[in-house]
Automatic annotation (TrEMBL):
Catalysis: reaction(s): D-ribulose 5-phosphate = D-xylulose 5-phosphate
Documented EC number(s): 5.1.3.1
Keyword Transcription regulation appears in the UniProt entry: no
Active site residues of this protein: D34 (proton acceptor), D170 (proton donor)
GO terms classed as biological process: pentose catabolic process; pentose-phosphate shunt
CDD domains: RPE (cd00429)
Family, similarity comment: Belongs to the ribulose-phosphate 3-epimerase family.
Keywords tagged on the record: Carbohydrate metabolism, Cobalt, Isomerase, Manganese, Metal-binding, Zinc
Name of the protein this chain belongs to: Ribulose-phosphate 3-epimerase
């Protein structure tokens, strides 16, 4: 089963509540929420307060993607705000294993993301401790960038390490790149600009096909 996770980074923030409802009704499986701190990535988005304010707009899974330095400092805040999945970047925390355990101690799922420049090998030691691997197929920080083709090989590599783990791909996903990711073994696709720049329902179902 392929799941689609629209990234609200491409939503209209002036009516965020309505956007969450619209994207939920259009068939989103997860709501992908990009948190950026202007330090780990060269952009600033929003934090737990904003997430909390949209929590009651939908029952969908809140898939929180933390692009922040030392995410261990804020896990409780994101859990309290309503996160169901918390994904941290392998490069953002010195003690990756410890931070994973910290997240698991709350009742939420844990994902680990790797940037285009980070080899899959960096997470091989902890792969059995986590629920999801998030392969970044662009350098994190902005929506609307082009898909980096070698990400396909990384998806295959992760799938070879685990048959059952969730593999999410994030960045430059459209109906063409989605096909390649699914064939390579991904089962969750994040898409921001592709979905929000069109008819939400049509775009979500075109990714699923
Ligand atoms: C980038 C974010 C993505 C972004 C994807 O740092 O993690 O979730 O919103 O946007 P598109 O789908 O437009 O590449
Ligand atoms: Zn993301």
């Amino acid at each position: 089963m392929i799941k689609i996770a629209p990234s609200i980074l491409s939503a209209d923030f002036s009516k965020l509540g309505e956007e969450i409802i619209a994207i939920s009704n259009a068939g989103a499986d997860y709501i992908h929420i990009d948190v950026m701190d202007g330090n780990y990535v060269p952009n600033i988005s929003f934090g737990p307060l904003v997430i909390k304010s949209i929590r009651d707009k939908t029952d969908k899974i809140f898939d929180v993607h933390l692009m922040i330095d030392k995410p261990e400092r804020y896990i409780k805040e994101f859990v309290d705000a309503g996160a169901d999945i918390i994904t941290i970047h392998a490069e953002s925390t010195v003690h990756l294993h410890r931070t994973i355990q910290l997240i698991k101690n709350f009742d939420v799922k844990v994902g680990v993301s790797i940037n285009p420049g980070t080899p899959v090998n960096n997470i091989s030691q902890i792969i059995n401790d986590i629920d999801m691997v998030l392969i970044m197929s662009v350098n994190p920080g902005f929506g609307g960038q082009n898909f980096i083709e070698f990400s396909i090989d990384k998806i295959k590599e992760v799938r070879a390490l685990s048959k059952s783990i969730d593999i999410e791909v994030d960045g430059g996903i459209n109906n063409e790149t989605a096909k390649k990711c699914i064939t390579a073994g991904a089962n969750i696709l994040v898409a921001g600009s592709y979905i929000f720049n069109g008819d939400y329902e049509e775009r979500i179902s075109s990714l699923k096909d």
